[in-house]
Amino acid sequence: MTQAPTPTADTVRRLVRSLLGGSTEPDVRPVAEGAEPDTWWVGARHVLRLAPDRETAVRGRRELRLRELVRPYVPVALPTSVAHGEWAPGLTYTLDAKVAGGSGEDHDVSALGEADLAAVLTGLREVPVRQAETLGVPRVAPRVLETLRQSAERAARVLAEADEFDAARPERLTREATAQLGVQPGAAVLVHHGLTGGHLVVSADGRVRGVLGWSDAVLGDPAEDIAGLALSVGSPAAVRAATLAGYGARPCLRGLWLARCDAVVDLAEALADRSGAPPPLPLLRTRLRRAWEPILLERVTELRDDDPDEPA
What we know:
Elements: H1 9-20, E1 28-30, E2 39-42, E3 46-50, H2 54-70, E4 80-88, E5 91-97, E6 102-103, H3 111-126, H4 129-134, H5 145-161, H6 175-180, E7 189-191, E8 200-202, E9 208-211, E10 218-220, H7 223-233, H8 235-244, H9 249-272, H10 281-291, H11 297-300
Antiparallel strand pairs: 1-2, 2-3, 3-5, 4-5, 6-8, 7-10, 8-9
């Protein structure tokens, strides 16, 4: 197999000059520092993404088509491609116009922003599944919450020993609760599967202005996006947004516990340095705190077998 070239600033400048023209040297810099950066700022108005391998290239091509499918259903900005093609044989690029606003990691979401998130969740549910499937969006089976619960219990003990987490706190996911929070029969929906702060564009007044990063979208369990929001904006805000979107107690609580288990496991793995290239520890600690914020719903809800999993 031919080794993929490593993108450099010179590579990016030559590509940008060929796309945008101009006589001045374009200002380019990696979005995140790394040995092989594949996402670059181009001046103040554009973002260039370079696929480092063929699998990423396939997902990148699919993302371009998926964004156009989703755009009419989601009332916030999605990236718009200015140009796309190949920067090396079989490896794609897309030059996107920058969505105005800041990172969700740096700005809190306001009450109006929660309504924006509710509109995003509603729009995702309304995207025609058959059309998304035609674009190649994969179906993914819901995660088994009991398996995740067991991993989280082990991770919580590790974090307790490191004084990172109180394993005796009152909120606990029991074996009985995991059975109640299983996914009920129903149609899959389009799931962004990456509603992290870095993919939310938030304005200074707390409104959600855009959603980035559609390459990992799947057809599956909407609780995964509720979980992503719990890690990004906190459990109370995530549950309020999901409730505004019409989701009932079961998917909201399932999303809450997916987030809590993921947060515990991710931080424990990062502390043990077993997860490859994890996010920075401060970010993982923040996600843990957000996911474990208490919510009233988990204290007052008694699920029944006939509780709907999908909104009416």
